[in-house]
Design goal:
By secondary structure, the chain is mostly beta strands. Helices cover 4% and strands 53% of the residues. The protein has helices spanning 4-8, 75-84; strands spanning 59-73, 92-114, 123-148, 154-170, 174-183, 186-195, 215-226, 231-242, 255-265, 270-281, 298-312, 315-330, 334-346. It has a twelve-stranded antiparallel β-barrel. The two termini are 40 Å apart.
């Protein structure tokens, strides 16, 4: 197909890796998404197609993302949220019949510098991602149980809670470092990222845009891309280690996330395909503030994607739209989410044409 060469040199977004998005790296969104209160550092779906493909040229690039998610969860997550914000006392044995609903809209901007000098034979890049957006979360339901009274007796207890919380603020900062290697149609990458908890967070508030604690996330990925046929498949596996939340003395367990994307380039500009993810918490939650037990989280998602490459002056632009429907959730809300990404990066330099006259005999 004509023009395949320009596609093979295209990063086509998600060269940031996150959490940074994102979660992307994954991202610290307090929308009842996993682990403590069903909230995780990593946003499943942050990585996608061509995640391991090296950039076409060194230098600065910028990626902007719009992310929307709409999720809901039942009793377990609702009970955890009420405990954290102080609505359920420590001496209360309670059954919760409640639900949590959240709608989050985020704008994410990431600046990336790709180094010209190879590191360990691969292409190195460093990124910093910032977040600004809105979170609207509500909780409603009934609580029925007993509370320990004086003298060892118990007192029956019942209550109906209806809580609405929303804010517009900055989220946490997410730095990332990546190494990528190319070997023909095979591409490999490794990354490390983390969460700097400087965003809007209060442990007694239902809606937040910060995580409230430090986190480190690392992993690796693979991309198969054949520029002759336009076939592409990418997958990235990562793990998150969460530090103790100093506000709640709660430590979320180790998380595993697997993002994948498969696509076909119909022309040198248009790309269509599928994306998906699997998120599974491996370790139990712990800490003196853990009053809900192990609370392992899980969710999966799948959906379509479409991409478009176009020139922007002497740079190259890329638009990608992808969406996920979630299922198989446990101790974590499920719903749907949409990503709209714009990436702007330098194009590969054209080899200079020699002006030296050719001498023949």
């Amino acid at each position: 197909m004509k023009g395949r060469k320009s596609i093979s040199r295209t990063t086509l977004f998600l060269r940031l890796g996150a959490a940074a998005v994102a979660a992307v790296l994954g991202l610290p969104i307090d929308a009842a998404r996993a682990d403590e209160n069903g909230i995780s550092f990593w946003i499943p779906g942050f990585f996608g197609s061509l995640a391991a493909a090296p950039s076409q040229a060194p230098g600065w690039s910028v990626t902007t993302m719009y992310y929307h998610t709409s999720v809901s969860a039942g009793g377990d997550v609702a009970r955890s949220r009420e405990i954290t914000i102080g609505r359920i006392p420590a001496n209360l044995n309670v059954n919760v019949n409640a639900s949590v609903n959240a709608n989050v809209d985020l704008g994410l901007v990431a600046g990336t510098y790709t180094f010209a000098t190879p590191v360990l034979g691969g292409q190195a890049s460093a990124s910093l991602l910032g977040v600004y957006g809105s979170n609207s979360t509500s909780l409603a339901g009934s609580l029925v149980g007993t509370v320990a009274g004086p003298g060892g007796g118990v007192i029956p207890f019942s209550r109906f809670d209806s809580i609405d919380s929303s804010l517009i603020a900055f989220g946490d900062l997410l730095p990332m470092f990546q190494l990528k290697w190319n070997a023909g149609v095979h591409n490999y990458m490794t990354y490390i990222t983390g969460d700097i908890p400087v965003g809007a967070y209060q442990s007694d508030r239902l809606a937040n845009l910060g995580l409230g604690h430090w986190a480190v996330d690392a992993g690796g990925g693979y991309t198969y891309f054949d520029p002759k046929t336009g076939h592409e498949f990418s997958t990235v596996l990562g793990f998150t280690y969460n530090f103790v939340n100093p506000s709640t003395q709660y430590q979320s367990g180790v998380d595993m996330h697997l993002d994948w994307g498969a696509s076909q380039f119909l022309t040198k500009q248009w790309q269509v395909g599928l994306v998906g993810y699997l998120y599974q918490q491996l370790g139990c939650d712990s800490g003196s503030g853990d009053r809900v037990g192990c609370f392992r989280s899980r969710v999966a998602g799948v959906g379509p994607q479409v991409g478009y490459i176009f020139p922007v002056g002497d740079m190259q632009g890329y638009l990608n739209l992808k969406g996920y429907g979630e299922f198989a959730n446990e101790n974590r809300p499920a719903g749907w989410n949409v990503w709209l990404t714009f990436n702007l990066q330098p194009t590969a330099p054209t080899p200079p044409t020699s002006t030296r006259p050719r001498i023949t005999k």
